[in-house]
Specification:
34% of the residues lie in helices and 33% in strands. It has 196 residues and is an alpha/beta fold. The protein has one domain: Rossmann fold (3-Layer(aba) Sandwich). The longest helix has 11 residues.
């Protein structure tokens, strides 16, 4: 994610976003991901925001890394006990076979859809064989900005399933619904967990 306007929105509203992220802890996909991880798992949260979920990974005994392009978010994530945080984006993911799990919840959607295949491929390479990828995004088509200026890429569920399959990821969990995020706009979403 490198869109300046999107980054500025998150920097300005970091505290408000942190409150919303705390509510996300109640969602079943967080519990499922944690339950699927081996003891002492090494996990990466890309686009971690304030690092609330990454903190839960660390609290569960995982080696938890948090990446975000917004310095204010990185500082919040670094304050979570047991979390190693750094300012980084998808393009920085060059590791091969090192992570038991990668968590990318509503972060890739702020990058151009044209970049998604390469980003999915980087995730798949970075996972250990059998590693788990969690991916959350908004459903729809095309690219647009929301009411507070953030850039979004939208994808349909069939297109997302095709992208997972083309990347060699085997989907084992999906959850769809609707929710309101930082802008207050209600939109359909999907959460997917897949194995490398």
């Amino acid at each position: 994610m490198s869109d300046p306007e999107t980054l500025a929105v998150y920097a300005a509203q970091a505290e408000k976003y942190a409150t919303l992220a705390t509510l996300d802890m109640e969602r079943p996909h967080v519990e499922r991901f944690i339950a699927q991880m081996p003891k002492g798992a090494r996990v990466l949260d890309i686009g971690c925001g304030p690092g609330v979920v990454t903190g839960a990974f660390a609290a569960a005994g995982m080696e938890a890394e948090a990446w975000d392009p917004v310095p204010e978010m990185v500082a919040m994530a670094a304050a979570q006990p047991g979390v190693t945080a750094r300012q980084a984006v998808y393009a920085d993911l060059v590791a091969e076979g090192v992570y038991d799990g990668i968590w990318a919840n509503f972060s890739m959607l702020h990058t151009s859809l044209a970049d998604w295949p390469a980003q999915f491929a980087a995730v798949a390479r970075a996972l250990k064989p059998g590693g788990l990828f969690h991916f959350g995004t908004k459903l729809g088509e095309g690219e647009a900005r929301d009411s507070i200026g953030r850039f979004y890429s939208y994808i349909s569920e069939p297109a997302l399933m095709d992208l997972m399959a083309q990347t060699g990821l085997t989907v084992e969990y999906t959850r769809t619904g609707e929710g309101a995020g930082l802008s207050g706009e209600v939109a359909p979403f999907i959460s997917v967990q897949a194995r490398a």
